Amino acid sequence: MQELVKRIQQDGNVLGDGVLKVDSIINHQVDPLLMKQMGELFAKVFAKRNITKVVTIESSGIAPAIFCALELGVPMIFARKSKSLTMNEELLTSSVYSFTKQVTSTISISRKFLTESDNVLIIDDFLANGQAAKGLIELCQQAGASVEGIGILIEKSFQDGRQLLEDMGIDVVSLARISSLENGEVTFIEADA
Amino acid sequence: MQELVKRIQQDGNVLGDGVLKVDSIINHQVDPLLMKQMGELFAKVFAKRNITKVVTIESSGIAPAIFCALELGVPMIFARKSKSLTMNEELLTSSVYSFTKQVTSTISISRKFLTESDNVLIIDDFLANGQAAKGLIELCQQAGASVEGIGILIEKSFQDGRQLLEDMGIDVVSLARISSLENGEVTFIEADA
């Protein structure tokens, strides 16, 4: 997506440890028009997959996911990273290991919101090593739901997340694909949409 | 907002301990059309306040806040409940005490995103004792920004949060106001919009 690539070039910052910081447009301050455009693009790309639920994980996936769900006319579900006081029903749970934080956390969705008749589109802001996406896929699989695809805003193509998901047979659509963050420079390869 | 009241009556559940559960429409599974309607209503109510930023707190405030920000044509900022790896700049921070969890947590916004020239509209899903809203107001005040109002989806009018905010001189606009959750019944009083 040309607009996202342009905005990363304009507003993104590469931190010393190979981290891309996009906190002025995506994951702290958020550009609502950009989110709307990205959410609607995912809806268009997956229009023929009969999506019944859009699933993401709190917090940075929520904005693009809600616009995608609106466009598709289906509910959005955000997986919880910690158990809420009111989550008193049976839960789908999965363990997600964070390489950056070096901790394993449990993510969950209430079982009542995903069934075997659901066709799920997963949306997330970043794809790096694919652990969060894998966790979301496992929640869907526990419910017997079909994962129809994954929409990613920014893919770090120099990490192995995409390969991991494709090896699981999942269609990955990334709006910006970054092949390198070396020397503080963002290098892009052709995106999927 | 009649539509929200109707949906709470239809989809809400009162838990034994006086907690209203709306996880099928607001804070776990999310209805995107309802969120759009609520966000746009806040934008309409605060249209003349020259809002420059919409501020919320992760995670359940993000969906209504992003639609409000889109309608107003301004950025949305979500305060973080935990420090992100990439938050390496100066932060505005505030302590928020949770009566339900009985813990104090620190919320933060990067200082660069709020200045004294900002007019802020705060959006959140619930208002009960007002501690989260008070924390967000403190972040704005540290930046010298003006808090032009607070938009709340569901106010528990039997708790003292609204009074706390009004005593600070803040305009509170709640789309549903609940006067009682006793005996498992949701009783409403007239909402602000």
UniProtKB/TrEMBL annotation, chains A, B:
Molecular function GO labels: xanthine phosphoribosyltransferase activity
Keyword annotations from UniProtKB, A to Z: Cytoplasm, Glycosyltransferase, Purine salvage, Transferase
Pathway named in the protein's UniProt entry: Purine metabolism; XMP biosynthesis via salvage pathway; XMP from xanthine: step 1/1
Reaction it catalyzes: XMP + diphosphate = xanthine + 5-phospho-alpha-D-ribose 1-diphosphate
Annotated HAMAP family: XPRTase (MF_01184)
Oligomeric and partner information: Homodimer.
Name under which the protein is recorded: Xanthine phosphoribosyltransferase
Organism: Enterococcus aquimarinus
